[in-house]
Design brief:
The protein is an alpha+beta fold and 219 residues long. 37% of the residues lie in helices and 23% in strands. It contains five helices and nine strands. Keywords: Signal. InterPro entries: T6SS-assoc_VCA0118 (IPR017738). Pfam families: VasI. This is Type VI secretion protein VasI.
Amino acid sequence: MTRSLYTLSGASSLLLMFSASVWAQESNELVTQAEQCRVISGRLERLACFDRVFQTPVDEVVIAPKQNVPPSWQRAMQAVAGSEAAMVLVTEGEGKGSNAWVALRALNRTTPFEHNAKPVLMVSCIDNLSRVELALPSSVEDARIQISVANAQPEYLRSDDNGVLMSSARGIPAIEMMKSMAREPRLVLRSNSPFADGLQFDASELNDALSALRERCGW
């Protein structure tokens, strides 16, 4: 009986030592990854990196499914769902070739949409393409609208087939729009379309967040 107890005790000790070794290794890996996050200059991207490393829980809000909506619409709405922040940075992977997008929820207390639902302005680098898109709470009939920001040259946004997503031309036109958007802390859209004209967004941290897009799309 004594020998049996000793054997079990020894096995338990070995198991504890092994568990401690694994825990120490995982802890060292977390520290290494956290150190990599610390060198990221952009505040929002640095916070997003820490969230990924430490798996910070984020409250998820289920959005009522819409049929055949574009992936960009889903990205924009999911980014702001469950968050009270006026702007949210989302990243997938690190470095050039990975994806990142910034979603800005409209600040307007009233909107033309049911229950004053808020449109979401999204700037992104997806699949190495820069984009500016306006995700709408419900569909509109406009096939194309004109918008301008910060007194910049007006640009056209075109609707998807369902009328819930307005998209700019990709690449350089989108990049120039992003640069204009980051010039002022409060972004106001001017448009020939009533549902978009006067939409306001908090862009005070947009220039910081754009560093994640610049890195991935190389501009």
